Every structure is written in C-alpha cells, then in structure tokens.
Amino acid sequence: MTGFAVSTAGDLLTRVRERGPLVHCITNDVVVNFTANVLLALGAAPAMVDIPEESGVFAGVAGGLLINLGTPHAERRAAMEAAAPAAVEAGTPWVLDPVAIGALPVRTALAHRLRDLGPSVVRGNASEILALAGTGSGGRGVDATEGVDAATGAAVEIATKTGGVVAVSGAVDLITDGRRTVRIANGDALLTRVTGGGCALGAVMAAFAAVESDHFTATCAAVLVYTVAAEQAASFAGGPGSFAVAFLDALSAVTADDLARAARLS
Ligand SMILES: Nc1ncnc2c1ncn2[C@@H]1O[C@H](COP(=O)(O)OP(=O)(O)OP(=O)(O)O)[C@@H](O)[C@H]1O
Ligand SMILES: Cc1ncsc1CCO
C-alpha cells in the first residue's frame, strides 16, 4: 500500500491527452525548447510567457504554471513575482523548481519568497530541496550532491509548511504531501545526460496538476508517466542524442498498460 494507485496514473494520462491543458512556463534559457516539446509530446499545450507585464494575467487563465529558477534574469524574476500571486489568487496550480539554489544568493532569496506563497508542488533534486528547507548549502551548480533519502525530512517539512506537495528527483523519486509518501524507482540515468531532464518534469507536473485537484496524486502520476517513458526510450537509444528524440516519441505513445507493467512503487 503506497497511497497511490497505478491505475490512476493511466486515467490522468488520458485526461491530459483529452483536455490538452494550457501550461504557462516561466523557465530557463537552456531548456525552453525541450520543455515545450515534452509538453506537446504528452498532449499538453505549452506557452512560454515570461515578461512581467503579461505573466500575471496569463497565470490566471492557464491550467497550470511552472516557475523554474534556472536562469533568473531580472525581468524574468519580476515575471515570476507577478505570476505566483496571480496563480494563488486564481486557483491555478503552480510548480516551483528552485534550480541551483543554496550557494547562489539571488535565486536562493527568490526561492524562499516564492516558497512562502505556497506552491502547489515543489520539484527539485535533493540538494535543492535541502537548501529550500534552509538545511543545506546547495549542490554542484544544477546537479545534486546528496541522495534522495537525505532530503526526506526536508521534503516533509516543506510540504507541511506550504500545504503542497514536494517531489525530490534522483535515481529514486520521492513524492510527499507531508502525510502520504511514495517512492518511484523508475527512470533512466540517460535523463541526467540531456539538459532539462528535471526541468521538463516540472512542466509535466504542472500539466497533471491542471487536470487533477489532488496534487499528490497528480504529481505521482506525472513522475510515473515520465520515468516509464524514459525507460522505454532508453531501451532504443544509442546515447543521449537519440535518447532525447526517443523520449518524445515514448511520451506520446506510453499507455496505461505500460505503466501498470513497469511501475516500481514503494
Ligand atoms: N541515476 C538515475 N537513474 C534513473 N533515473 C534517474 C537517475 N537520476 C535521475 N533520474 C531521473 O531523471 C529525472 C530528473 O531528475 P534529476 O535529479 O536529474 O533532476 P535535476 O537534477 O533537477 O535536473 P535538471 O538538470 O533539469 O536541473 C527524474 O525523473 C529522475 O527519475
Ligand atoms: C545547465 C543549466 N544551467 C542553468 S539552468 C540549466 C538547465 C538544467 O538545470
């Protein structure tokens, strides 16, 4: 008993494909194109609206919002600070990805301000989640220096304080809302050999949260779909380049039966 039924992931995948939720992304310069392609492959509709004069209005009409701190230029920071309260006000589910916080002061302060607005989901690697809880000094740039287990306490603490969900990525992904905790052991290390493997997952979480109000269930489904598709892609890939292409194909083709067969949950 894990607090999450695999069959639900198949149902939510169908819902995403049928409804094509509009996902508002304020993300980093490195992963914009990959993130948009991942959302399109899944069946969602990406829109990269990242200027302050537009982001508040758009956060109110989108189905879900992603705020990713990877390359937080001043104008983009202002766009984030306009979008997050607008999402809260409108009831738009939003995902915070605190990329590379800890040692870098500007994004760390911004991440703490955004955390205090109550994101529906926080997604990061173990070093980022420890830094967001105030108990770690960050990783090595955008990469984690800690395993997921080291961040379990920090994840539960953030989830309890924000009232949202926290997802810690790594060889095993951990998802918690402070009461329920699920570990998903699917995925492939090739996801760490193409840029945006974690960043695009945040956008996929926003797509699932757009179609399911239980954001814990939505986040578990997002991780399972994403990591099972990655395993399928890896079985065809000759390396990171062909993996990235095969991953888009797998996201568009993965089925509920595939999820049921492949899921490794605890
Ligand atoms: N060693 C591994 N084996 C299998 N899957 C992995 C491994 N490491 C990470 N993943 C998968 O890769 C995805 C991204 O996780 P990762 O921890 O690399 O994110 P990140 O460090 O935040 O990435 P980004 O470079 O986008 O900031 C997750 O779905 C996770 O399941
Ligand atoms: C490489 C890199 N640098 C800032 S954001 C980013 C994308 C992966 O997090």
TrEMBL record:
<comment type="similarity">
    <text>Belongs to the Thz kinase family.</text>
</comment>
<dbReference type="GO" id="GO:0004417">
    <property type="term" value="F:hydroxyethylthiazole kinase activity"/>
</dbReference>
<feature type="binding site">
    <location>
        <position position="169"/>
    </location>
    <ligand>
        <name>ATP</name>
    </ligand>
</feature>
<keyword id="KW-0460">Magnesium</keyword>
<keyword id="KW-0479">Metal-binding</keyword>
<comment type="pathway">
    <text>Cofactor biosynthesis; thiamine diphosphate biosynthesis; 4-methyl-5-(2-phosphoethyl)-thiazole from 5-(2-hydroxyethyl)-4-methylthiazole: step 1/1.</text>
</comment>
<feature type="binding site">
    <location>
        <position position="196"/>
    </location>
    <ligand>
        <name>substrate</name>
    </ligand>
</feature>
<keyword id="KW-0067">ATP-binding</keyword>
<comment type="function">
    <text>Catalyzes the phosphorylation of the hydroxyl group of 4-methyl-5-beta-hydroxyethylthiazole (THZ).</text>
</comment>
<dbReference type="InterPro" id="IPR029056">
    <property type="entry name" value="Ribokinase-like"/>
</dbReference>
<keyword id="KW-0418">Kinase</keyword>
<feature type="binding site">
    <location>
        <position position="48"/>
    </location>
    <ligand>
        <name>substrate</name>
    </ligand>
</feature>
<keyword id="KW-0784">Thiamine biosynthesis</keyword>
<keyword id="KW-0808">Transferase</keyword>
<dbReference type="Pfam" id="PF02110">
    <property type="entry name" value="HK"/>
</dbReference>
<keyword id="KW-0547">Nucleotide-binding</keyword>
<protein>
    <recommendedName>
        <fullName>Hydroxyethylthiazole kinase</fullName>
        <ecNumber>2.7.1.50</ecNumber>
    </recommendedName>
</protein>
<dbReference type="InterPro" id="IPR000417">
    <property type="entry name" value="Hyethyz_kinase"/>
</dbReference>
<feature type="binding site">
    <location>
        <position position="123"/>
    </location>
    <ligand>
        <name>ATP</name>
    </ligand>
</feature>
